[in-house]
Amino acid sequence: MTSESVVRVRASESVAADSRDGLRARKRAPRRAAAVWDPGVRQVRALDRLRAQEAVRDPALLPLRYARMASSPWAYLRGAAAVMAADLAAAPHSGLTVQMCGDAHILNFGLWASPERQLLFDARDFDETLPGPFEWDLKRLATSVYVLAEAERLGNACAEDAAAAAIDTYRTAMRRYASLGELDVWYDRITSDVPLRRLTSQFAEAAARDIAKQSRKRTHHGAARQLVTEEGGRPRISLDPMKRFDDGMTHDQRARAAEQLYDTYLASISPHLRRLVNRFERVDSVRQIVGVGSVGMRVWLHLLAGDSGRQPVFSQAKQATAAVYEEFLGPSEFTNHGERVVVGQRLMQSASDIFLGHMRIDGYDYYVRQFRDMKIIPTGKQIAGYLPQFAAACGHALAKSHARSGEPAAIAAYIGKGSAFREGILRFARAYARQTHTDHADLRTAIAAHEVTAAERGW
Fold first, then answer.
1. Are residues 199 and 255 in the same domain?
2. Which one, 56, 61, 73, 398, has the greatest CB density within 10 A?
3. 268 assigned to some structural domain
């Protein structure tokens, strides 16, 4: 037998073993049983799950967090990853482990530029990333489709089509990844045109023009034009009471933070990149308020200037805490949660930010990334016109990410060729979308009863 034949035989044996693992997983977690959602299994109120997160957040921003979550069921879902994590953990799971995104709702996918400046489509938020069962990400993705479709008043038919498209595309992509070699899986990329496929040519061309326009605007130079003012002859990041405010640090605090930055962030990136980072100096820093679920996390935006005088760079440092799944799956292997996020992102994405790193400042963990850098983050309104196509692209991206860290043959075998898996996920997602509306109403009731303080302003 030739060496090539030996390789083929071993590959066939490996795929067969993984497939058997997938079939055995059906006994641990029958696919149709995935449909079951029973709120009676909750041992802790959803509101109490949310309030348990208060200890690691800036208390001054908590009223704003609750105000944003109370604004709609969609906003509530975005901020309630901890609630859904506990609910997912209450039922049997497949045991087929991947690097989960952890917060795979539909607007946590988008476009950004690879180091080669190619726009790629991928998952984009990794605050909750952790190794765990693959189907938990799919359940959150499908649930988010139903909640977003209702928020955008798209109708049940559109919601059903979009949720089914996400799951079907995930299955098709995972079967393809199961047939590929390791490097082929690792090198696979999803380009910016994928979410626009199967659209009418006129709609696709208009969307493509919009993407190109946004990618030109969402650069460091574009951010500088929008965010930088001049005070006393020096550039400063403009302040906005709902987005950016003074960091409030003294000179000594900044000096101490700079020392810790050097000790931890620079140690987390490759030596050749330290040469690049050392060509920049900090010009100004502000605190940021970002997102819905992240409100209360400590986030800094830094304006850096290159030695050339021609290259402004915005760097964002965002606080990282324990993933919401660690209570149920065990603690992360990383002692710095910024490192947990960075490693998870690099595992899941085909290409990641070259500045991606982690650090620890005054006892808080952070991860560091470029701000904007051609990142295109969609809104519900923007994708409403082609929700099924966009959801399908999300399913593809999630399958790619899971195939990089898990065993695609085992996952493909577990899912199978029939409808059992899809119907199970869809039924769960419909039920959990209804639960999200109930939990959102409960939060509003708690605010009205002054059990929780919520305020858009005055925090």
1. no
2. 398
3. yes
Domain boundary at 370, 392, 427, which? 370
* Residue pair 425/134 in contact by the 8 Å Cβ criterion: no
Measure the CA–CA gap between 457 and 63, rounded to whole angstroms: 9
Does some domain include residue 135? Answer: yes
Q: Give the structural domain span for 338.
A: 241-370
Contacts 24+ apart (CB under 8 A), 234-243: 234/283, 234/284, 235/283, 235/284, 235/303, 235/305, 235/312, 236/284, 236/303, 237/284, 237/285, 237/286, 237/301, 237/303, 239/286, 241/457, 242/289, 242/456, 242/457, 243/288, 243/289
As a whole number of Å, the CA-based R_g of the chain is: 22
Domain tally, the chain:
2
- pLDDT tens figures, 13-38: 566 787 898 889 889 888 888 888 99
Domain-located, residue 459: no
Does residue 255 sit in the same domain as residue 117? no
What global pTM score does this model have? 0.89
Provide the sign of the torsion angle of the four alpha carbons 150, 137, 357, 361, taken in this order. Answer: positive
Say which residue the tokens 């060509």 belong to: 279
Q: What would the pLDDT profile of 302-328 be if each residue is shown by its tens digit? A: 888 888 888 888 889 999 999 999 999
291 assigned to some structural domain: yes
Length, in residues, of the chain: 459
Q: Report the half-sphere exposure of 105 (CA within 13 A, side-chain side).
A: 27
- Which candidate, 68, 109, 33, 142, places its Cα nearest to that of 444? 68
Q: How many other CB atoms are found less than 10 A from the CB of residue 366?
A: 25
| Phi, then psi, of 215 in degrees rounded to 5 | -65, -30
Same domain, 403 and 340: no
The region, left, alpha or beta by phi > 0 then psi within -120 to 50, assigned to residue 38 is beta
Q: Is residue 352 a contact partner of residue 345, using CB atoms and an 8 Å limit?
A: yes
- Which of these three, 339, 370, 401, is where a domain ends? 370
Pair (302, 358) in one structural domain:
yes
